[in-house]
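Sequence design from tokenized structure. All designs in this work follow the same two-part layout: the structure record, then the generated sequence. An example of the structure record is given first.
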């Protein structure tokens, strides 16, 4: 796996990751689940560096779902504190490395202090171009589609849009991540094979990759393995394999290769 030539293989433009398995990682070591969340923060740093160095445009990490509020209050409170301290600690470094940070999710669910910190971090890094790092926090795919629908409904109510004129593209434009390429690779660590209300609309044509590794153990090699797997897949978008192959040949001819 060390000999993957990243210059040669087809890289995903946008990788989305469901970072699962922190709690089990800690429990396997006889520790409290929150110990796993802290170790998970180190794995985040590693994944961000890897994505930036390999030239991936966008990385979207699922950090806290709209359903995770139902966890024991003590765990929720540790996760919020961790989010706050990691933001504080890492933003300058992200900025130095030209990373644009965006938080997607219902920010109103957070404390005023955390919302302020999020706004400051987004503003500071807004013009950066090396990598866009989206952290999904208090995020749910159903919430996202609902908030997009509300925006279109408001435009209809204001007389700026007729309901018959609504298109898929208009709804897509109101969703989180609209200005970025659609995620083309979804990775879920922790061995579960489900989407857990992550980017329901945006993942329509993503390639799914499931890894048994628990998130705190997700390292450069594990990331490289997922990308190598992605690069071998044929993405058909509803076409037949023959059509896809023909389209590749046609592109080669027109690009003079
Ligand atoms: C993912 O790890 C992190 C969050 C959901 C916040 P988990 O905490 O879900 O870990 P497991 O799945 O229980 O091992
Ligand atoms: C998904 O993990 C959410 C995050 C990784 C933030 P969960 O552990 O919450 O998902 P379920 O409950 O196993 O579906
Ligand atoms: Mg989990």
């Amino acid at each position: 796996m060390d000999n993957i030539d990243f210059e040669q293989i087809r890289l995903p433009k946008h990788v989305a990751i469901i970072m699962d398995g922190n709690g089990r990682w800690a429990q396997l070591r006889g520790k409290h689940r929150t110990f796993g969340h802290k170790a998970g923060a180190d794995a985040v740093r590693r994944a961000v560096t890897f994505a930036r160095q390999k030239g991936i445009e966008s990385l979207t990490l699922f950090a806290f779902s709209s359903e995770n509020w139902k966890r024991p209050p003590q765990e929720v409170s540790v996760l919020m504190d961790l989010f706050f301290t990691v933001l504080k600690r890492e933003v300058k470094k992200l900025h130095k490395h030209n990373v644009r940070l965006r938080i997607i999710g219902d920010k109103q669910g957070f404390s005023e202090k955390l919302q302020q910190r999020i706004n400051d971090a987004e503003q500071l890094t807004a013009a950066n171009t090396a990598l866009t790092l989206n952290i999904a926090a208090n995020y749910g795919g159903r919430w996202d589609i609902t908030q997009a629908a509300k925006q279109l409904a408001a435009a209809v109510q204001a007389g700026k849009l007729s309901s018959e004129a609504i298109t898929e593209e208009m709804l897509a434009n109101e969703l989180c991540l609209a200005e970025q390429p659609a995620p083309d690779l979804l990775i879920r660590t922790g061995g579960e094979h489900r989407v857990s209300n992550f980017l329901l609309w945006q993942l329509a044509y993503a390639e799914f990759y499931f890894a048994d590794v628990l998130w705190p153990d997700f390292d450069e090699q594990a990331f490289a393995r997922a990308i190598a797997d992605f690069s071998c897949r044929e993405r058909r978008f509803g076409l037949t394999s023959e059509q896809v192959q023909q389209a590749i040949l046609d592109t080669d001819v027109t690009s003079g290769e």
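The chain has a mean pLDDT of 96. We note this feature because it recurs in several other targets discussed in the main text.
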